[in-house]
Amino acid sequence: MAKPDLQPARGTHDLIGEEFRRHHHVIDTARRISALYGFEEWATPIFEDTRVFARTLGETSDVVTKEMYTFEDRGGESVTLRPEGTAGACRALVTNGLTQTNLPRKVFYAGPMFRYERPQKGRYRQFHQIGCEVMGAAEPLADAEVIACGWHIQQALGIDQGAVLEINTLGDGPSREAYRAALVAYFQASADRLSEESRTRLEKNPLRILDSKDAGDKALVADAPTIEAHLTEAASAFYAGVKRALDRFGVPYRENPRIVRGLDYYSHTAFEFVTDRLGAQGTVMAGGRYDGLVEEMGGPPTPSVGWAAGVERLSMLLEAAPAAPRPVAVIPVGEAAEAAALDAVQSLRRAGVVAEVGYKGNLKRRMERANRLGARAAVIIGDEELAEGVAQLRDLDAGTQERVPLAELAARLI
């Protein structure tokens, strides 16, 4: 058969069958576990005023300069398909007047995101994320709890084996200023060995050099100073509080002083869950504290912390896709039995039983279709059964068959 002319746009993919069941299972599990921690689900628009992302992600960030799907709509407004979920949640907090009441707000979200980047395994231009945000909490316990929720989700999915939580602190404002000065002094001494991109970062945001993937930069980063020596007493106490709470929650971790968030509104905790089961794309969940982001949106100072995770990557880690529900096939034999079959199939569905009724075909063909569907049972109704108010209930696994009153079918099949 010739390949159809129309294909999914590059970097997108269809979710069908087993792949959809994996995808749905990840989101459904995350939704269920986050609710146990008191998170409520929000849904923000898929596109926003471009300033929501340009202002919060940084005008010089790779996402803003290279990856955002930004266009001018018919009204002349610049809008952007959301590249991530945190900014939209913070914008929603501000524009819905929620910054002064019932804080903290604990928010869960799930949905598609969009970035124009080179597609690769587990990474698409339209991809999906889940995320949890605690907005309006300044205490280290909030950091630990949001991390514990993410760990619990991974445990519930059965993908926690081989996953490692790496954490770091970015300190408070004075800590970062002192650390920034130390990094500038260190990297300036070897500026000629830095990549062109990192030389630009040295002027604007030296912390982002620690994130560089360039081999030459990595060699310099290996000996770069860490923030620990530059932490204020308050920042050091905050970090210790996060680690104590993680210990109480039973979340294992290791410290990694190279985990950074380069934007000014990030502070204190930065973390990633990493795995060696996805090749180069080792991060499955990442986040941190962003005490200045709501203020960037025009709201009051609102300390916050959260994480996001890629659904596609989490789906790839599942040992097996959840099984599709096995239906019950309801099969009428003859025109007179069809009305009773339709009554029966709806009765089963209302009782929560997945049920199918074939549209056409004799008994043999309908049974063949039931087998193709993987049905667990067949309910056969013919003229004789109709006259007696019963059905033949055939167990397609055991091969047994019995007569069951129509009124008792649902109870037998639940």
> What's the shape?
elongated
Radius of gyration: 28 Å
Kindly name the structural category. Answer: alpha+beta
Instruction: Please list the strands of the largest sheet in the order they lie side by side.
Output: 1-5-6-11-10-9-7-8
Distance separating the two termini: 43 Å
Spell out the CATH superfamily of the largest domain.
Bira Bifunctional Protein, Domain 2
Overall mean pLDDT stands at 92
Q: Give the % helix.
A: 25-40%
In terms of per-residue confidence, which ranges show pLDDT below 50 for 5 or more consecutive residues? Answer: none
Short overview:
It is built from 15 helices and 16 strands. The protein is α+β, with helices and mostly antiparallel strands and 414 residues long.
Structure overview:
By secondary structure, the chain is of the alpha+beta class. The protein folds into two domains: 18-172 and 232-317, 2-Layer Sandwich (BirA Bifunctional Protein, domain 2); 328-413, Rossmann fold, CATH 3.40.50. The protein contains 15 helices and 16 strands. The chain has helices at 18-36, 50-57, 62-67, 86-95, 140-157, 173-188, 196-204, 215-221, 233-249, 293-296, 311-317, 335-350, 363-372, 383-388, 409-413; strands at residues 40-41, 47-49, 70-72, 78-81, 105-114, 126-135, 164-169, 254-255, 267-274, 283-289, 304-310, 328-332, 355-357, 377-381, 390-395, 401-405. The strands form three sheets. An eight-stranded mixed beta sheet has the order 1-5-6-11-10-9-7-8, with helices on both faces. Strands 13-12-14-15-16 form a five-stranded mixed beta sheet, sandwiched between helices. α5 runs parallel beside α9 (233-249). It is found in: Cytoplasm.
